Amino acid sequence: MTAIRFVAMPTRDAEHLWNGGRDAYDRPPETMVSDGDGNPCRHCLKNIEEGEELLVFAYRPFPALQPYAETGPIFLHKQRCRRYVAEEVQPPMLMMSPDFIVRGYSANDRIVYGTGAVTDIDEIPAYAETLLARADIAYVHVRSARNNCFQCRIDKAKAPALAETGALT
How many domains does one find in the chain? Predict the structure, then answer.
């Protein structure tokens, strides 16, 4: 099977919003206060704790507009947070629900039909590996099974770097 990595929202996207930038609909993000239940930050991939301020905004995790470039509401800590780095580990926020939609996308950022499945949280890594082993799938999204909101992306794990001698490092 193919090893995978869980990928958070890019820091450049978060920085854009933290610095007063506008969302995918060219609107300023809204500020809310977390009630402590179900407000996952897409940058650190942790829940935003009760009483903490958060930004809610329209996000499009695709490089360009096109018919399959889904846009929807997501959350981000209002105060800067560290981007999720334990990419080989299923993020804590994916424990907040019993299941999620896991769906494959092609290299041209289109949904690969027939790949979307509501997947139990403990089955997400195995299903993502199965999808990423296919030649027609470039990456996978994890989305809310209830609201279809983007949670995170799953990519194939990076291959180890080769040293000048050609040995694995």
Answer: 1
